[in-house]
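Supplementary Note 3. Input sequence used for the single-chain structure prediction.
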Amino acid sequence: MTEAPAPQAATQLSLAAKIARMVGLAGHLLISVWYAASGLLAPGWAVAVLMIVWAALFIASIMWWRTRPWWVLAVPVVAAAFWFAVISAGEAWLGWTA
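The predicted structure, written as discrete structure tokens, is reproduced below.
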């Protein structure tokens, strides 16, 4: 009879990693205000796409919470860059104005 593999011990995160993931998640939650307020500049379909991207990044940060805490810190930076790129492109090429 074969035995099930023994469960591996959870790796202990450093204090810096724990702080990084908290700051990253808090930053991503704050970025949601930008995404939600995009309706002042962008059409409804663009705001819906932006909110879907925000939710996907939120899910990614939750999935990386234990395994990749430093990546969680990068999520709000990526979210802000993506939002800025979409709004800027919409303004330049699609004529979105406030």
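The longest helix spans residues 69-93. The two ends are 70 Å apart (CA to CA).
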